[in-house]
Design brief:
Blueprint lengths: L1 H23 L4 H32 L9 H35 L1 H4 L5 H24 L1 E8 L4 E8 L3 H57 L1
Antiparallel strand pairs: 1-2
Helix pairs in contact: 1-2, 2-3, 2-5, 3-5, 3-6, 5-6
Length: 220
């Protein structure tokens, strides 16, 4: 019960975010970045909802009544959900790096993170995630299979012998190494950003204190 409610809430929030950023204007890199993040998160949630629906149908509807193996179909779509999730992770990391660079070294990176470059980077993220999952996607698929137990032909999954090997590689690279690296980059960027903001706050305090005696002297 909780998972569908959270999914619906997430869809509503991301749709609202997309509308808000579209109304604000997509002429700045940061707005485009957050809008793209909302789009990928929205697609991820929709895909997750469809997968959960198929799982529920496969659990509660007798298989003899349907022509599709719902559990197999949900498992096939799971990899596309992973692609969307990994793309969202890449965009989140990009936002962290961009904010860190613009705050820590604003003069050097002022004109680096443009709207056009952000769109190109996001397209590269999506393409790279598809490419990294391509061996796994091409080593299995959907086909019509006769089920002798139910005496019906159902849409089911087929697998090449190499599928298990590709899945192990995918689990190591995409499910273990990649999220750890992305998390470490985000933590480092957050630490640098926090340090620079603290330094900027201290500099403003010093400037305020140094200008206060002069203001008091003029008023006297």
């Amino acid at each position: 019960v909780l998972e569908p409610a959270l999914g619906i809430f997430g869809v509503a929030v991301n749709v609202a975010n997309i509308v808000i950023f579209a109304r604000i204007g997509l002429n700045e890199s940061i707005n485009v970045s957050f809008c793209a993040l909302s789009v990928t998160d929205l697609l991820f949630l929709v895909c997750s909802g469809v997968i959960n629906l198929f799982i529920a149908m496969g659990t509660y509807i007798p298989q003899a009544m349907v022509w599709v193996n719902m559990h197999a179909l949900s498992g096939y779509l799971t990899w596309y959900r992973h692609i969307l999730f990994d793309t969202s992770t890449c965009i989140h990391t990009y936002i962290a790096v961009a904010r860190c660079c613009c705050v820590a070294m604003p003069l050097k990176f002022k004109n680096v993170f443009t709207v056009r470059r952000a769109l190109v980077v996001f397209f590269i993220f999506l393409s790279a995630n598809f490419a990294s999952h391509m061996p796994l996607l091409l080593s299995h698929g959907l086909t019509w299979v006769y089920n002798p137990k139910l005496n019906i032909t159902q849409l089911n999954t087929w697998f090449y012998d190499e599928w298990t090997f590709y899945r192990r590689i995918n689990d190591i690279a995409n499910r273990t190494i990649f999220p750890i690296v992305a998390l470490l980059i985000s933590i480092i960027c957050a630490a640098i950003l926090t340090r620079e903001l603290i330094r900027a706050s201290k500099r403003r305090e010093q400037m305020t204190r140094s200008s206060t005696p002069y203001a008091l002297t003029r008023s006297a």
